[in-house]
Design goal:
By secondary structure, the protein is α/β, with parallel strands linked by helices. About 45% of the residues lie in helices and about 15% in strands. The protein has an 8-stranded mixed beta sheet, with helices on both faces.
């Protein structure tokens, strides 16, 4: 099989990193062990657009263990770990097209190489693969069993496709499983985002006024971990309930127009565009530090920064200084996912749960291909709960079980006061 990576000589380091990830991904290895025995994906071609990280490599190995062939590219130009891509290229049954720092042209070329593989199942993070197939390769759609979407931004795009009547094959909303968005988005994004900001800038967060833009699962994780590091956290929101939650969680909540008078560090996690716009940057303090942890690089209006500065310098890798009038603004990771552009993404343990969902979603889609309609489908609760049990087992944690009497009580409506 053919691959295109930055440097094949990095493969040895990539294999070591994958081994390190596996030691922390016991839940996914349990799925892999069953796949080896049962081969539920025999003959299935899986096309993937995911962040090419050591954790993703363990997912790829799990799919191959189940009998699949895999073609994979990245879902962000800056998120590929080049040593991991090189290691994947050495594994039988895998094509990989990815390197860190892809141009836009390379990014879409690599997507189309995965599409040329003519996958039976797609796995997406952000919906670019699904979009490209629907927009430019509709002839492949009748042969596609299902797709699996990893992230909130992708689900938002899929919902828009459904509303427009544009979605033509079934999609499994992996992001909506509890063991994904309440684990990966909250614990993973919270830790890895701050890891990326710190690696890019080495800024001390203790004592800083840190503005979290958006208080969904990702924003909750970022805000709480920033508070744990001693930051004074402000939250901005457009959703009344999320704003209420942030208030009840003890954070200051205010409009962005007010937050820019106080903020020193800004982190966007909304899934929407221009939540930090030119009007906000014009009002920020000198030395304001900006980072994005949403999927696309348009949450901060980076184009405006590039078009309206009077000086731009790279201070450190993935840490740029812009002169705007009489002040400077710092941007981490080119406005792309800071946790992957400037760091390594989510820790392996939390990704084990996310990728259990992906592996089991592929299995579920293949098993139920004659029942799924071109719509967005949730994974059954028993799969989600089973993943939680696998993770507890991997962590060596036991929990109680209901007694027969308790099961009967919960199933009855006769007992009362």
């Amino acid at each position: 099989m053919a691959s295109q990576v930055k440097d094949p000589a990095l493969a040895a380091q990539g294999h070591r990193n994958i081994e390190w990830a596996e030691k922390q991904m016991g839940a996914l290895l349990s799925v892999q062990e069953r796949f080896v025995k049962e081969k539920p994906l025999t003959g299935v071609k899986v096309g993937m657009a995911l962040h090419v990280t050591k954790e993703t490599a363990v997912l790829v190995k799990t799919l191959i263990a189940g009998g699949a062939q895999v073609s994979i590219t990245g879902c962000n130009p800056l998120s590929t770990q080049d040593d991991v891509a090189a290691a994947l290229a050495e594994i039988d049954g895998v094509d990989v097209y990815a390197h860190k720092g892809e141009t836009k042209e390379e990014y879409y070329d690599f997507l189309n190489r995965v599409i040329a593989f003519e996958p039976d199942v797609t796995i997406d993070d952000g919906c670019d693969l699904v979009y490209e197939i629907h927009q430019n390769h509709p002839e492949l759609i009748p042969g596609i069993t299902c797709g699996c979407e990893e992230t909130t931004t992708g689900i938002i795009r899929l919902q828009a496709m459904v509303a427009d009547g544009a979605l033509k094959y079934p999609m499994l909303a992996v992001n909506d499983s509890k063991t994904k968005h309440l684990m990966d988005n909250y614990y993973g994004t919270g830790q890895s985002t701050l890891d990326g900001v710190i690696r890019a800038s080495n800024v001390l967060l203790a004592g800083k006024v840190l503005v979290v833009v958006g208080y969904g699962s990702c924003g909750k994780g970022v805000a709480n971990r920033a508070r744990g590091l001693g930051a004074k956290v402000i939250v901005t929101e457009v959703d009344a309930f999320c704003g209420l939650q942030a208030t009840m969680d003890g954070f200051l909540v205010m409009p962005m127009a007010e937050a820019v008078k106080h903020g020193e560090v800004y982190i966007t996690v909304t899934g929407n565009k221009h939540v930090i716009a030119s009007k906000h940057m014009k009002e920020m303090k000198d030395g304001a530090l900006l980072a994005n942890s949403g999927h696309f690089d348009n949450e901060i209006d980076v184009n405006w920064l590039n078009d309206n500065n009077t000086g731009k310098r790279e201070i450190r890798p993935f840490f740029d200084e812009y002169t705007i009038g009489d002040k400077v603004i710092y941007l981490c990771g080119e406005g792309r996912l800071v946790n992957l552009a400037a760091a390594e993404g989510h820790p392996s343990t939390v990704m084990a749960m996310s990728f259990c969902n992906q592996a089991l979603a592929v299995e579920y889609g293949v098993k139920h291909k004659n029942e799924l309609t071109p719509d967005i489908h949730q994974l059954p609760a028993e799969i989600d709960d089973g993943i939680a049990a696998l993770q507890l087992e991997a962590m060596g944690i036991d929990i109680d079980e209901l007694t027969p009497e308790q099961i009967a009580y919960l199933a009855s409506w006769n007992e009362g006061t």
